[in-house]
Amino acid sequence: VAGWPEMKRRSGRSLALPGLFAYLAAALGTTVTAAPSDLVDQGAFDPRLKGLLAPPGVRVELAAVEPVLNSPVVLCIADDGAAWVIEWRPEADFSIKVLRDADADGVFDSSALFTRELVLPGGLALRDGWVYVTSGESVLRIRDDGGRDGVREELIRGFKNNGSHHRVSGLAFGPDQRLYVSFGDADARLE
Question: Are 173 and 127 in contact (CB under 8 A)?
């Protein structure tokens, strides 16, 4: 998020919102810039967001709260509008949930577990009925069988992590239809 360090510094506290998923509602194609003194406390619109600062014209709204999701770390929006979210829960439970907005009011009101059995997932992408996810040293693809975990394939492995968060993460499909993967400074031996 552009300006995140300044937003955090101005609030005087951490802006982590555990269990909350927020989105920015701003006009597409608009460039928003503001001096630090012009930032607007989003608590004026929703008291749960007190201390979260954003430029004028940008509005932060909650799109899902507990119990729909808890501790989200990665988000991917499907063509049907469903939000696919990786959760890292406190008890070291790593999962992917599918969130839906049944009444089209902009708030995800239900969630369903897609899969667990992941190791520190940090990347997520959707393509042609497959869910691509990083897990441990690997990139997996899991067949979406109607919102349920289906066939699971390991596409590539060997992304060592040396116990750090510089692990395999960000997944994205490029305009060339290739899957791009990012990873840190670990000693990778890809297979």
Answer: yes
